[in-house]
Amino acid sequence: MPAGHRNPLSVSRLVETVHKAKHRNDTVDPLELAQRGDVSFADIEIQFIGASGLPKMDVVGLADPYFVANLDGKISYVSSVKAQTLAPVWNEIWRVKNVPVISDLNVEVFDKDDGRPHDDYIGKFKVSVASGAKEAEIEGPLLRKDRGTFWLKISSQPSDLSLANAYPYLFDGPIRYSRHSSLTVGRLTNLPAADRLYSTWKIYLRGVPLYFKDNYQSWNRDYKAAQGIFGPGPGPLAARGGIQAGHRLLYSRAGRNEFGVLSGGADLVQLLKAPAASGERVKPAVYTYIISATDNSFRFSETGAAFFVDFASKHALHSNCAERVRYSGEFHPRPVDGWANFNESKSDEEVQWELVVDNNSGTYAPKKDLLGALRELLEYNFSGLRIVALDREEPSLKESVQACRKYALGVRGVEAEELEAHAAVGEDILSHRVSVGEHDVSEDTGDHTYYGNVGRTERE
């Protein structure tokens, strides 16, 4: 063989030998072998097709199955819930770059039980990431071996080696979202008032490490409210417990959630629509957001929603009391000419929209010099949507927020109470639900983060 070239047959045999050794000894780390150059990296696409023959898990009804998949315990994926079926069809896609070719795909299947703290475990299986269609038998616990059959298909291509070592197990889409909604008014008190729908959104972002590198924003030790959450002692410990319980309620996984895929910025704008006198319109509202350090998700809700009153930090609520996030702040949509110049007679489709995003978060105090990275990350994920990133001290930011709220009040007829975190008498709020111990707490977690050499496959 010419100098500097490997015998393809030898490489093939090496991969086969290593894979056999790996299955005999789970301590073999595929990433370590790939970074040493013993095996190669691949960009893979997994199509989770569906399953059949699942067991009936409840006395009444069939099953509400979903699955949790992971690659070597380094990055994971959580599917949508399929209601009342023993033969679910998902047809969901998961793309991951820079995966060692000897990696394993591990899948666990569950039955969602709304209103219970834990979901029923159906079974699991493991397959290699080699390309091809795959049919796997789902193995249940103990003697319950046959729990159905799962179908999937994997395709792959060689990775770009200039990025593979630095960014292994890099999530590459599709950009999935879930919307979690709560009907609140009078739910506990049976008030006759019309229900209002409070929503939280979670969007899984591509390429977060490419833009933020090793930058994380830790909780702000100079901020009194943050000290009351993250500091030492029984008070902060109790506060964290309440906030984490609220987080689980907000992001609970259930068949009633809305799931989908965003193909660009126009789809994000669609998510921000709400009922108005002239039909579904982009809502002039301000949203609180965080970009999670644990799963690279973009999580947000309306800043003024009364449902979240009594929580010291909405950013901590969205982050599940994480001590650090990738970034946090607020954002609002606006027409490119501003809300002050907007003509209500125009349809939203005739308007060019932009997203104004900032670092207004006392809990994490994100660094101003990362606003450029934030803008580029959001433009990468929401193509076609202009992103305007402003520091919280920028006068133009305050003017834009005021114009947004003025339009909501003066043109859309939004009540002033809806723009401030103020609950009406008798209104069901999140802290009330936590205090009475509501248990719809199985969180919708799709973990797209590479954790170095520490495997993480559990759900938050």
UniProtKB/TrEMBL annotation:
GO MF assignments? calcium ion binding
Residues in the signal sequence: none
Q: Which InterPro entries match?
A: C2_dom, C2_domain_sf
Outline the extent of the C2 domain.
Answer: 24-142
Keywords carried by this UniProt record: Calcium, Metal-binding
* Positions of region (Disordered): 438-460
Protein name, please?
Answer: C2 domain-containing protein
Q: Which organism is it from?
A: Sphagnurus paluster
